[in-house]
Design a protein that fits this description.
By secondary structure, the chain is of the alpha+beta class. Helices cover about 40% and strands about 20% of the residues. The protein contains five helices and eight strands, in the order H-E-E-E-H-E-H-E-E-H-E-E-H. It has an eight-stranded mixed beta sheet with strand order 3-2-1-4-8-7-6-5, sandwiched between helices. Helix 1 packs parallel to helix 5, helix 2 runs parallel beside helix 4 and helix 3 packs across helix 5. The radius of gyration is 16 Å and the shape is globular. The N and C termini lie far apart (about 55 Å). The relative contact order is 0.16.
Length: about 200
């Protein structure tokens, strides 16, 4: 049986996350994609082209660990970016990808990476317990070749170490957590911090 109680629970969490994120204007039109990993390794992920603020249970589908559809529905073209993060981090249970204004604008103001430091809200990110922290969020050039983009993310992590998130230039950002709730907390915190950085860099221009 493809759909079971665990799938339905994760799907409901992704639907709620979509409403929350859309309510703040961070997934305009049909942008963004969300996923949650099930205990058997299958991944519940949003169907391509669906509005994230109006998701219904049938708008969440199943793919395998390689991003291949298990139920005949079409996943987001960016499913490979999700499966790459799940392979890299076995304890990650959910990934959220909004197209938020602050992250998108920041990628037009800053090249290479965004440095977040000395912010109290950094403690909202998993594993951080002090504002005296420096978090680098890399910015990757946008690329319609998603496997190539996924490879660049993997190569960056190999060279620089673990990440909390990354931005795709002119596009949006990816972040993740052990659960949908954890990933959603990261989305909210990072969007706040990206907004502050946008104002700082905007003033400097």
């Amino acid at each position: 049986m493809l759909h079971d109680t665990e799938f339905e629970t994760r799907a409901a969490e992704l639907i709620d996350a979509g409403r929350f994120i859309d309510g703040r204007g961070w997934v305009p039109a049909t942008s963004g994609n969300f996923s949650a990993r099930l205990s058997d390794g299958r991944i519940a992920i949003t169907v391509s082209g669906r509005h994230k603020g109006r998701l219904r249970p049938e708008d969440i589908m199943l793919v395998d660990a390689e991003g291949r559809s298990l139920d005949g529905k079409k996943p987001s073209a960016e499913a490979v970016l999700h499966t790459g993060i799940y392979r890299r981090y076995p304890d990650v249970g959910a990934i959220l990808h909004p197209h938020s204004p602050a992250a998108t604008l920041l990628s037009r103001l800053v090249a290479g990476e965004v440095i977040l430091e000395d912010y109290e809200l950094l403690k909202a990110l998993a594993g951080i317990d002090s504002h005296e922290t420096r978090v680098a969020v890399p910015i990757f050039p946008n690329d319609q070749n998603i496997p190539r983009l996924a490879l660049k993310v993997e190569e960056y992590i190999e060279m620089h170490g673990d990440l909390h998130a990354y931005i795709i230039a002119g596009h949006g950002f990816y972040t993740w957590g052990k659960s949908v709730a954890d990933a959603l907390r990261h989305v909210e915190a990072l969007e706040f911090l990206f907004d502050l950085e946008t104002r700082i860099h905007g003033v400097k221009r």
